[in-house]
Design brief:
- By secondary structure, the chain is mostly helical.
- The chain is elongated and about 65 Å long.
- The protein has helices at about 1-40, 45-75, 80-105, 120-145, 145-175, 180-215.
């Protein structure tokens, strides 16, 4: 009877841990989308909401940390179970950082002038959408313990990098030709860099998902 109780309690803890990661992922996805919407529209009020909501992600990360440590200390998980707990512990930290990048994008919304003149403003939403899809897909892979989907997410990061390189070249050229726009263009470079980092962090999560599911990291051609 005691063993059954222990197993049930462990299952409840794992379910709670997965729920916290899912909640964090949902908040991160919304933050990315709303930060980009605010950027395109110049909506400072929406941007402020993204910044304020980031505190919720910080609170959830702390809950993930505490629960993970509790599970390890009290349940002594082994093999697959231990990998899952360790992966959740790391993923929680990465999702919090993704939220920070979305917050950083939102903070730049009010600093961009003459936004109608910048071609990259038409490219940044597409780049951000791709990075947001990576976050969504990697959370799906985590929930399903799907290493194949995790590898697909890793492969997608190259497309985000290509977007970043294109936007970088475009903005640098624009700044050279239009010195008066340097300040706003620099803010857009900062935004592009944050989106690129979101893609990198989604890749990091995908590697952890792959490890939790298989006990191995993806081969180098996927990383």
């Amino acid at each position: 009877m005691a063993a059954e109780h222990t197993v049930k309690a462990f299952d409840e803890d794992i379910t709670r841990l997965r729920g916290l990661i899912a909640e964090m992922g949902g908040l991160a996805e919304v933050a990315i989308q709303e930060a980009l919407d605010a950027l395109v529209r110049g909506d400072v009020e929406l941007a402020d909401k993204v910044v304020a909501r980031d505190k919720k992600l910080d609170v959830l990360e702390t809950e993930v940390d505490k629960l993970s440590v509790r599970i390890i200390a009290l349940r002594a998980p082994m093999a697959d179970d231990l990998r899952e707990v360790i992966a959740a512990l790391k993923i929680g930290g990465v999702l919090e950082r993704i939220g920070d990048y979305a917050k950083n994008i939102a903070k730049r919304v009010g600093m961009i002038e003459r936004r109608g003149e910048f071609e990259p403003l038409t490219l940044l939403p597409a780049m951000g959408e791709l990075a947001g899809e990576m976050v969504h897909d990697v959370l799906t892979a985590y929930a399903a313990r799907d290493p194949d989907l995790a590898r697909e997410v890793i492969a997608t990061d190259a497309k985000v990098d290509a977007f970043y390189n294109s936007i970088f070249r475009n903005l640098v050229s624009y700044m050279v030709e239009n010195p008066a726009t340097i300040s706003s263009a620099a803010q857009l470079l900062f935004v592009a860099r944050n989106i690129e980092r979101i893609g990198d962090h989604a890749t990091n999560v995908a590697e952890m998902v792959h490890f939790a599911a298989t006990g191995t990291y993806p081969p180098d051609d996927h990383r």
